[in-house]
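Input.
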Amino acid sequence: MFTRNPSDAKHTLRACNQCPIRRECEAVVDPSHTWFDGVSGGRLWRNGREVAV
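Output.
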């Protein structure tokens, strides 16, 4: 999910909690090195930095 708003991401983050490939998802997207915005690996990212939800 691509979003910058923490409240928009809550549903997706809940789904990530049950996902069996959370770690693989984050490894593939590599948010901290790609300036990623959105949800990856069960965490919300903005400009490659984790955002507190």
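The mean pLDDT is 88.
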